[in-house]
Amino acid sequence: MRVGSCCSALVLVLLLAVPALAAPGDTHSFSVSLLGGVGGSPDVDPGDGFGNTGYQLNFSVVREPGTLVGVRVGRLDLTNKEQFGPLRKPFLDYALIGGEYLFNESYYISGVFLGVGGYRLSGDLAGGRSDQETAFGGTLGLSGEFGLTQSLAIRVEVAGHYADLEPTQVFGTAHAGLTLHF
C-alpha cells in the first residue's frame, strides 16, 4: 500500500475515533504525531535553501504536567536542487531523544523542545558511488498545538539542527501535521 493511502486512512480513523471537543491542556499520557514539512541548510554550496520536503514522527510521554520526554524520527529529502554540496540525491535521516516544556495559552499550547541524537547524511557522489556520513548532533525548537478534540490536535514545529557533517553542519525544519493523544 502506498504511503499516501496509509496517511489518508490514518487521518480518517483519527477523525472518526475522537468525536468529543477538547480544551487545550487536557490530560493524557502518550502522544504520537505525524508531521510533514520543509527544510534544508543555509550554509552549503551548491544546494542551500529550505525548499526541500520531509516528514517526522514524534512519540512522547508525559513525565509531569507541562513536561514531555520524547523521540523524534525524521527524513529530509534534500533533492530540491540538483546537488547538495558534493552529493546527488541526498537525504538527511535523524533520530533524536529530548524534552519539551509546554505552556497553556488561551486557545493553544506552546512549547520549547531540546534534543540530542544521531544524524545521517547519505547520497551519491559525482562518479555514482554511494556515500554516507553519520554524526552526533542536537536540535532546539518551538512547537504549537491547536486542539481539535480531546485526543486530536494540529501540531506545528520549527526547529534548528546541528550535526558535524560534511558539507554542512546546520539544518532547519518546519513541520505541521496531526497529533493523537491517548
Strand and helix order: HEEEEEEEE
Q: Can you give the mean pLDDT? A: 87
The fraction of residues assigned to DSSP E strands is: over 45%
* Coarse morphology: elongated
- Indicate the radius of gyration in whole angstroms: 17 Å
The low-pLDDT segments are 9-26
Assign a percent range to the helix content: under 10%
Largest sheet: 8 strands, antiparallel, barrel
SSE-based structural type? mainly beta
Q: How many separate helices?
A: 1
Assembly state of the chains shown? single chain
Strand order in space, largest sheet: 1-2-3-4-5-6-7-8
Beta strand count: 8
Task: Determine the N-to-C terminus distance.
Answer: 26 Å
What's the SSE blueprint?
Layout: H1 3-17, E1 30-41, E2 49-64, E3 67-77, E4 88-104, E5 109-124, E6 130-147, E7 152-163, E8 170-181
Antiparallel strand pairs: 1-2, 1-8, 2-3, 3-4, 4-5, 5-6, 6-7, 7-8
Name some characteristics of this structure.
182 residues, 1 helix, single chain, 8% helix, mainly beta
Can you characterise this structure?
The chain is mostly beta strands and 182 residues long. The chain contains 1 helix and 8 strands; from the N terminus they run αββββββββ. The chain has one helix spanning 3-17; strands at 30-41, 49-64, 67-77, 88-104, 109-124, 130-147, 152-163, 170-181. An 8-stranded antiparallel barrel has the order 1-2-3-4-5-6-7-8. The chain is elongated and about 55 Å long. The chain starts with a helix and ends with a strand. Mean pLDDT is 87; it is low at 9-26.
